[in-house]
Specification:
Strand content: 15-25%
Helix content: 25-40%
Strand order of the largest sheet: 3-2-1-4-5-6-11
Number of domains: 2
Number of strands: 11
Radius of gyration: 20 Å
CATH superfamily of the largest domain: NAD(P)-binding Rossmann-like Domain
Distance between the termini: 26 Å
CATH architecture of the largest domain: 3-Layer(aba) Sandwich
CATH topology of the largest domain: Rossmann fold
Shape: globular
Length: about 375
């Protein structure tokens, strides 16, 4: 196909399931000016959601490995809300990837339907499979804290001449050493740590920005998140969430007129609640001083379907990466990373980042 975007995915969890469902859910979108709930952009350049083709997928769970992607996205422990079921056989089977640090030891404490069941299959050669599939872009959606695994996949993408969209908080696009590797290979990279369309961090950022712009001195703030998917089981182990905490906290810090200490700005996943499944609850509080040095307090409770919320940004980031490939742009995409990622190479207020993305789509901005 003329406009085909050939995509590989590392980690077929809830976010990947929502992404694949979304590609087919929005398959009939044609016009740029059509109002479509859930999409920021119907067209990104000339690309529609239906142009994304999943050509290679890697996972480690035996309930997914060996299955066609169309079936594997609904296998346990995935618990994402099913919003589209009529997905054709994609003739793309899930291949066994290396485990490395992608499966936390504490998952053994949870039942099979909630945790991972590692396949005994031998891992494939990732770079070889990427080349064989003709993948142009690799999306990394491994569990948070998979430091070794993400760097491994980033390196395999380089070997296979694939662009990278890094959706988890292991710093690749925002690490000069790694972003320079992609630039040297002539490949674009977008990262790190995917935002949600309307999630806790984006709301927290906007509120922090409004407070700062309107002269309110923020003294203290927190953001607490609870959910029931594998991501929240994973983050029970605090060491797995170190980079996540940095990513989310720095995303909010970037909107403040004056930085807060990590004691006064507390952002963290709070707990795992099994019955919530892929529903996420977020609690945000800001305390500050307004005119006359008088106190001002704000509290918000947010409830969302966690994984589709992120997939809504991934579907945009992938199409921007393809535009960069078409234009032979290499290295970190500053505009796309700033708008769609929590820990980009450069932070901007979201209004400015969106403006930069639209300039990039029109060709008025290089990166």
């Amino acid at each position: 196909m003329k406009n085909e975007i050939r995509v590989a995915i590392a980690g077929l969890g809830n976010c990947a399931s929502a992404l694949v469902q979304g590609i087919y859910y929005y398959k009939d979108v044609k016009r740029e000016d059509e109002l479509v709930p859930g999409l920021m952009y119907n067209l990104v350049g000339k690309y529609r959601p239906k142009d994304i083709k999943i050509v290679a997928v890697f996972d480690v769970d035996k309930r997914k490995v060996g299955k066609d992607v169309s079936k594997a996205i609904f296998a346990l422990p995935n618990c994402v809300k099913t919003f589209y079921t009529n997905i054709p056989n994609l003739s793309t089977k899930v291949k066994m990837g290396p485990v490395l640090d992608g499966v936390p030891p504490h998952f053994k404490e949870y039942s099979r339907d909630k945790g991972f069941v590692v396949s005994k299959e031998k891992p494939v050669n990732i770079a070889k499979e990427l080349k064989k599939s003709g993948a142009q872009i690799l999306i990394t959606l491994l569990p948070v804290g998979s430091e070794k695994a993400i760097r491994f996949y980033a390196n395999e993408a380089l070997k296979a001449n694939c662009a990278l969209v890094n959706c988890i908080p292991v710093f690749i696009a925002s690490d000069k050493k790694w972003s320079d590797k992609f630039k040297k290979k002539g490949l674009p990279v977008i990262g790190d740590d995917i935002k949600s369309q309307i999630g806790a961090t984006i709301i927290h950022r906007v509120l922090a920005n409004i407070f700062s712009n309107r002269g309110v001195h923020i003294l203290k703030s927190y953001q607490l998140n609870v959910g029931g998917n594998t991501d929240f089981i994973n983050l029970i182990a605090k060491e797995r969430g170190k980079s996540k905490k940095i990513s989310k906290t720095e995303s909010v810090q970037s909107q403040l007129s004056k930085r807060l200490s990590y004691d006064d700005l507390h952002i963290a996943p709070s707990d795992y609640v099994p019955w919530l499944k892929d529903t996420k609850l977020a609690f945000i509080r800001l305390e500050g001083r307004q005119f006359g040095d008088l106190p001002l307090e704000l509290e918000i409770r947010l409830q969302v379907h966690d994984s589709p919320n992120s997939a809504g940004c991934i579907i945009e980031a992938v199409r921007l990466a393809k535009i960069a490939l078409d234009r032979k742009i290499a290295g970190p995409l500053i505009s796309a990373s700033a708008y769609f990622m929590k820990h980009p190479p450069q932070q901007f207020v979201d209004e400015k980042a969106r403006e930069m993305v639209e300039e990039f789509i029109k060709g008025e901005r290089e990166v």
